[in-house]
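tool_call predict_complex ligand=zinc ion
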Amino acid sequence: MNPFPPRFLFSAALLLLAAPVGAAPLRIATDIPVTASIARQVTGDLAQVELLLDRAADPHDFQLRPSQVRALENADLLVWMGPELTGWLDRAAAQRGEEAQLALLDVAGVELRALTDDDSPAAEREGVEAHTDDHDNGHDHDHDHDHDHDHGSQDPHGWLNPENGRLWFATLADQLARLDPQNGEAYRRNAVAAQARLDATETEIRSLLASQEIGPFVTFHDAYGNFTAAFGLPDAIAITLGDASAPSAARLSEVRDRIAASGASCAFSETNQPARMIETVIDGTGLKLGPPLSPAGLDLPDDAALYNQMLLQLGQHIAACHDGED
Ligand SMILES: [Zn+2]
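tool_result ok
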């Protein structure tokens, strides 16, 4: 038997052609698992993609360790959602050149839904005052942002609308092509393939959701407006606000009233959050508790497929909880 069949030689030649000549691969730092997945789908093997957020952490509230600060400094490009979601990168992003960072939520053409509680004073505050921070001295205003964005009442979980994901694949490919022109065509081809995969995922989710009668459902934090709008579902009822900060007693009681009036039949806790709060709120309501949702993909393997897997899993959990409803 020939130990080197022609196909093997052909593949080896292609690998040699694909390897960047004389240039180190780009290093890309990313904020949350979804962003890392988007970057990996566009770069393939042509760049090193690093995820900054710890798996057990809250995407809205994180502090970089010194080793992560160094990794970020050494990165050619920072891809992050933006100050509305991952404000812990705001300062680092501001220090980078325009082509050395990409804030996905700020890309022209991105569609964001208003937060579900848009008209509440608390929702007005969100995005200006990112969150209270219990790592330090207890002041609520330590993380005010100086940037002049005005996204205060928009839901920053924009990746839950696949339309935004498709736009970001193309935007990122264009930026990578400017940073690494030699591989520009490859990035653009990868982006087109990623868009097609996301189309297929979206179709699969639509058919899953169409198989059940899905009413409003209850969630841990106000993160699902972009998903429910994209997939034609009623707004979810969130127990905590868009930044996942702890709800007041008054809000909890208001939420219980809304649940009672809504005809909701399902509630979901969230990865990395205690289920106890959801359990307390739905106690005595007859709502079914579904599995924890993970809108940032924190419970999935950190690889290129994570974004699509996360969306699909969201659709599966929501459909399964409503299975058998009238
Ligand atoms: Zn969130």
